[in-house]
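Quick log. Single chain, no ligands specified.
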Amino acid sequence: MPDQQVLRRIKTAEQEADEIIEQAREEAEQIREDAREEAEQIREQAREEAETEAQARLDERRAEIQTEREEILDEARDERERLSELATQRREEVIAFVREQFEEAIDAQA
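-> predicted structure:
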């Protein structure tokens, strides 16, 4: 009888060992699956953060470009006005010069 008891205990111990091994395999698979899911979440979060950062940089650069554009347009308006005033002044000088030349030509004919 004692030999049968030992055999039963061995068989029971083997069954328990098999169950523990199966349970360990299931737990290992669950850990791998959880790790995959967590890695995917991390990748997704990193992608979203990268997109947000890229959009922020793009918006910042657009604002800088808009500011530069406005400065260039302001400078161009100022230059246009300066050239317009210069042209007006020169026109009056040219008219005076032409008038003087015309009067000299008339005086020379007389």
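The chain has a mean pLDDT of 93.
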